[in-house]
What does this fold into?
Amino acid sequence: MTVNPITLTVIQAGLQQVCDEMDLSFSRAAFSPVIAEANDRSDGIYAADDGALIAQGNAGLPVFVGTMQYSTRTLVEMIAAGDVAAPEPGDIYIVNDPYLGGTHLMDVRFATPLFRGGEIFCWLSNTGHWPDTGGAVPGGFSASATAVEQEGLRLPPVKLFKQGVLDQEIFSIIKSNIRVADQRIGDVQAQAAALLVGQDRLCALLDRYGDAQVAAAIKELRARAETQMRSCLDEIAPGHYRATAYVDSDGVVNTPLEIALAVTRDEVGLTFDFSGSSAPCMGPMNSVRATTLSAVYLAMRHIFPEVPMNAGAFEPFTVTGIENTFLDAHYPRPVSGCAAEVSQRIAEAVFAALVPALPGRVTAAPAGTSGNFALGGHDPEKGRDYVMYQISGGGYGGNADHDGLANGCSTIGISKAPPIEIMEQAYPVLYHRYALHEGSGGAGTQRGGFGLDYEIELRRGHAKASFVMDHGRFGPQGALGGCDGGINRVTVWQDGVAYTPEHLSKEQDIPLAPGDRVHVQTPGGGGYGDPLARDPALVVEDVRLGRYNAPQARELFGVMINAATGDDNAECTETLRAKMRATRE
It folds into this structure.
């Protein structure tokens, strides 16, 4: 069946609207701030036969683009093999097993079939970040886990809802293995409701245009996305491009993990070869295959955002060389840092490799960490336990057109940090500081954006803090002569004494008493281009706004600031920059 262009466009927009409404419904109904306020979730439509992505919500996390596709595909294959019970109308499966197309255990996936005429037309699926799934530490980010069982409850695909009814036995097992279990029902019902909204909206679209015409449109949209992505790749000259990125440590062994990437452009497409990357690690910074592939896809999505989001856009890409590395984790390797941290290092490697080939499109490295911070304890005033989960932004990399964004969301998502008013209302904490991480933007012709600087005090009760972050050892990479962005810093104040974790930005079970504080400064983005080519007037403006101080302006950009007026001393600046260039040469 041929679909005319106008109808094709309307159906494409309709599929997108279905996913956007699911996203909105999920966030509005969820109880946990990490979903309701931070929007750490995603919804999509997937093919009935192979789980291929048909459409995903614009406000969903990009890293879930690939993982939900592989998760749905795995579910379809397990049903076909008889390993999972066959679906009936109203069934909703739950799964969070990282090795079955997932990320980490806290990202819990729901999937439901959409039946039309007794046959499955497609699958609707979503992922929500639960604040806790059990394990050694509140929040699931065990920085020193050596096995996945220490990270939480691992669920294979099972029917949580059977013909529309919640299975209380399965839900009781889940509640018995997680903290603050009484609060999970709100997130569970919200996640299920989002799928029901998607079913209603998609059925309305199918009723209007007919199942056959919508199916034909989906096929055509997939083919066009592949064609458009291949056309975009024509901007890359044939050849080989290399880059290296590093993870600070795995949280157990305090040595860096290396991501070695070689990108080959040929007549077929792009091949991303990770041969030579570090071996599987002891700690939780292993990445499962689905997350590794998704990280490559989202990086290319950043570079070519105009390509529609469906499985066809991924067809020109081949990923090789991840076997026997920490980028292809198998049971029982711990993986809590894979989606939030390792995936961003993979994207950083892709950016660094392709910036020479696409200087007008690719940015310097962004902050590249989700800043995962969890605090679990008991609030004596409210008489209940809690698990607080905080994500935070960082600086974006500079690019050919402009400076990097300050305090932007992570590379892998569109999630925003929950408002501090909400956090202070829900948990016994007080924010003493919430500002830009001054001086963290990497110097360049276009400087990197600035990270976030915040400090939290525990007000009452006792709690334990855990965090899995990164870029505490190496700042985000600059590009084409730009400097690296500022590093991530974590300082814990216990009874007035400062403590810096051995692994810099990874630690767990840090006891906090009332008055103790945690101070976090997230990374800035890498700079783009030679810092000595930056307009001195822009440097002066950054100093005036407190983004850099005068000594930093001199050291990084070679700009001399007149102490009396705060203006650029043009004659001294010209002389200093000439000396700095001569020193480099």
The mean pLDDT is 95. The longest helix spans residues 184-209. The chain has three domains: 5-226, 363-532, 535-584.
